[in-house]
Amino acid sequence: DAGVIQSPRHEVTEMGQEVTLRCKPISGHNSLFWYRQTMMRGLELLIYFNNNVPIDDSGMPEDRFSAKMPNASFSTLKIQPSEPRDSAVYFCASRAMDHEQFFGPGTRLTVL
Amino acid sequence: TQLLEQSPQFLSIQEGENLTVYCNSSSVFSSLQWYRQEPGEGPVLLVTVVTGGEVKKLKRLTFQFGDARKDSSLHITAAQPGDTGLYLCAGAFSNYQLIWGAGTKLIIKP
């Protein structure tokens, strides 16, 4: 199994630009999580999907952030417009039922 | 607000020494997980403790869950350079929500 796949691995963009992060969960997993990790705030849950349906998006910072899961094998996290304070490592994780979460390698986002 | 305080934040020791990392909270968790994260990668689950007082061993790593399920510790015996990494604890209080500690950055010097 290839594990959770995220792309791109690194993204450098300018303030105001749209950023789209992509995630392919492990096949057969029915839960998907988007996290953000920074030195200051550690790991923060942004949104949780179960069976492709957003269950908890209370961690999404503001309206500039949106996430979709059109099918069981793909999810996106979009930031529009991006700001320097959005710079962080964004992780996607997937899980089967109530078992452990498997994290992807992350996308390191830098907004200049 | 549920918090999980992890200490120390940073630890640099010589190979062969022992160390303990702590996670403490005023909240009761249904389970507590320990992860290790290496640079450029996502966290990887090491162990989940569920029962108050539970002790689990993973080679030289010993994990303990407090009797009241509010705190946990990770003890490493005879640390090796391969143990270097960021150790994270996470307390579960629902079927999906984890409260994360800030992490302990561990460096083991040869």
The Cα radius of gyration of chain B reads: 13 Å
Shape of chain B: globular
Shape of chain A from CA axes? globular
What's the β-strand tally of chain A? Answer: 11
What does this protein look like?
The complex is a heterodimer of chains A (112) and B (110). The model of chain A has no long low-confidence stretch (mean pLDDT 95). In chain A, strands 2, 4, 5, 6, 9, 10 and 11 form a seven-stranded mixed sheet that branches. Chain A is mostly beta strands. Chain A is globular, with a radius of gyration of 13 Å. In chain A, a hairpin with a 6-residue loop joins strand 9 and strand 10. Chain A is built from no helices and eleven strands. With 110 residues, chain B is mainly β. Helices cover 0% and strands 54% of the residues of chain B. Chain B contains no helices and eleven strands. In chain B, a hairpin with a 2-residue loop joins strand 6 and strand 7. At the A-B interface, strand 5 and strand 9 of A face strand 5 of B.
Gist?
The complex is a heterodimer of chains A (112) and B (110). Chain A is an all-beta fold.
Descriptive keywords:
heterodimer; A: mainly beta; 7-stranded mixed sheet; 11 strands; 0% helix; B: 110 residues; mainly beta; 5-stranded antiparallel sheet
Secondary-structure topology with pairs:
The complex is a heterodimer of chains A (112) and B (110).
Chain A: E1 5-7, E2 10-13, E3 19-24, E4 31-38, E5 42-50, E6 53-56, E7 65-71, E8 74-79, E9 88-95, E10 102-103, E11 107-111
Parallel strand pairs in A: 2-11
Antiparallel strand pairs in A: 1-3, 3-8, 4-5, 4-9, 5-6, 7-8, 9-10, 9-11
Chain B: E1 5-7, E2 10-14, E3 19-24, E4 31-37, E5 44-49, E6 55-58, E7 61-65, E8 71-76, E9 85-92, E10 98-100, E11 104-109
Parallel strand pairs in B: 2-11
Antiparallel strand pairs in B: 1-3, 3-8, 4-5, 4-9, 6-7, 7-8, 9-10, 9-11
